[in-house]
Amino acid sequence: MRVMVIDDERLARKELSSLLEQYAHLDVIGEASTADEAKKKIETLHPDLIFLDIQMPGKDGFQLLTELDYIPKVIFVTAHDEYALKAFEVSAMDYLMKPVDPERLEESLNRLNEEEQELTPLTDLTRKNRLDQDDQIFLKDGDKCWFVSLKEVSRFQSEGNYVRVFFQNNKPMILRSLNTLETILEPRTFFRANRRFIINLKWIDKVENWFNGGLMVTLKDGTEIEVSRRQASKFKDSMSL
């Protein structure tokens, strides 16, 4: 497993990297001291797991995650209890308190190994260019944060310079355009229905003919979204209709 350590304190990075050396299945491929440096290295190296400090100068660990298209597995590292609680609330793989206790680290890694055996691993973007069902994204809206598997997202809705993401009973806003999302999502799963919506094809419950050669799609949550006439033929090809 390819690992990165992200912490603004050099000594903290070295101590954690040293602890990780005893695990033969882990390969520490890089370190970073700031969110911007980490973003560049994550985009280049595509680590499977990152140990991420939460409180750093400039952008914190949560802000870093909102800027990433590819989200590796995350174990937060923090010196503050309130951040540890927040890390737990957003369903991170785990969180560790500083200074990192070797036994607590081993427990965290064992839990990660157990979950990997039970779950389908996230798709590594070194093998493909687009985000699909088995990938996850990190969302932050105000004080609320989520790690979200894309299979849980029913649709993306454009609202000006923002996009609203619908999953479970949540619908946070992110500062992305629908056009940008269209370039990073797998088109065989996420379809641009019209100017305002990208829909998850796996969520479709019913399709009906609509006015002017368009289609009306009903999602499993009952939402109705029109597929424009321009997109209708592409949609039929995607669904093999």
Note the gap between the termini: 41 Å
User: How many separate structural domains?
Assistant: 2
Which fold does the CATH topology of the largest domain refer to?
A: Rossmann fold
Q: Please give the largest β-sheet.
A: 5 strands, parallel
In the predicted model, the low-confidence regions spanning at least 5 consecutive residues are 118-128
Shape: elongated
The CATH level-2 architecture of the largest domain is identified as 3-Layer(aba) Sandwich
Q: Strand sequence of the main sheet, in spatial order?
A: 2-1-3-4-5
Give the fraction of residues assigned to helices.
25-40%
Q: Structural class of the helix and strand makeup?
A: alpha/beta
Describe the structure.
This protein has 241 residues and is an alpha/beta fold. The chain folds into two domains: 117 residues, Rossmann fold, CATH 3.40.50.2300; 104 residues, LytTr DNA-binding domain (OB fold (Dihydrolipoamide Acetyltransferase, E2P), Beta Barrel). It contains seven helices and 15 strands. It has a five-stranded parallel sheet, with helices on both faces. Strands 10-9-8-12-11 form a five-stranded antiparallel sheet, covered by helices on one side. Strands 13-14-15 form a three-stranded antiparallel sheet. Strand 6 and strand 7 form a beta hairpin. The N and C termini lie far apart (41 Å).
Q: Which structural traits does this protein have?
A:
241 residues; single chain; Rossmann fold; 2 domains; five-stranded parallel β-sheet; OB fold (Dihydrolipoamide Acetyltransferase, E2P); five-stranded antiparallel β-sheet
